[in-house]
Design brief:
Layout lengths: L1 E5 L18 E6 L1 H8 L6 E4 L6 H10 L2 E4 L8 H11 L4 E5 L6 H14 L7 E5 L3 E6 L2 E6 L6 E6 L3 E8 L5 E7 L8 E2 L4 E6 L4 E6 L2
Parallel strand pairs: 1-2, 1-5, 2-3, 3-4, 5-6
Antiparallel strand pairs: 6-7, 7-14, 8-13, 9-12, 9-14, 10-11, 10-13
Length: about 220
């Protein structure tokens, strides 16, 4: 099972959602993202939000077409995205992709990225990606990983989001590394490139954010 979550970020930053849509995917809409899904003829299984970003007419359409709606008042401790991601994690899917979570308000964008860090501590954590038209963002715990070359997103950046990432080794990259310790704030690993079909990265301690980008 794969779960896709669409938040209410700028539509012009979304990838083509239709390419991510198939019968094996469960869609979840968050606030205005619910209406965006409906406009693309995708019916979400779940909807979360206070829906203060949709018109009354749009809300009526949401209530008519979506069977399971979780509504909350705006004054709450969790964001709508946090509630949706928590539900998704508890379904124990193979993968979660999040769209519409970047661009627009920076506080929303950084809050959504923070959720990746929070989610990696969950016992249900699998693979979670934030995807927009230009970027793919994900986080990893210590380990060894292979990463495939993507011609449309050729730049790969490695950003420490714990106090320190220790033992970072990059192989098959334009700028390789061997057993380096990278502290928060370092720009050493920005805008690298995979040389052949695959590269590998590994590290022994910390939490690492990987961003794959196009120009």
């Amino acid at each position: 099972m794969i779960i896709h979550i669409l938040a209410g970020g700028p539509i012009d930053l979304l990838p083509h959602l239709e390419t991510y849509h198939n019968d094996q995917v469960i869609w979840v809409g968050v606030d205005r993202g619910v209406y965006t899904l409906l406009s693309k003829k995708i019916i979400p299984k779940m909807a979360f939000g206070d829906f203060d970003s949709v018109s009354e007419e749009e809300l009526q359409e949401i209530e008519k077409k979506v069977e399971r709606i979780v509504r909350h008042v705006p004054e709450k401790d969790e964001t709508d995205m946090e509630l949706a991601l928590s539900w998704a994690l508890n379904q124990e899917p193979e993968k979660i992709r999040i769209f519409g979570a970047t661009g627009g308000r920076l506080d929303h964008m950084f809050g959504n990225i923070q959720l990746l860090i929070q989610a990696i501590q969950s016992k249900f954590f699998k693979d979670i990606e934030i995807i927009d038209r230009q970027n793919i963002i994900f986080v990893k715990k210590p380990g060894a990983y292979a990463i495939e070359k993507l011609d449309e997103k050729k730049y790969v950046s490695f950003i420490p989001i714990s106090h320190e990432v220790r033992g970072l080794t990059l192989k098959g990259f334009k700028y390789p590394l061997t057993n380096r310790h990278i502290e928060v704030g370092s720009t050493l690993c920005i805008s690298n490139e995979i040389l052949n079909d695959f590269g590998t990265f590994s590290f022994s301690n910390g939490i690492l954010m990987i961003i794959r980008s196009s120009d």
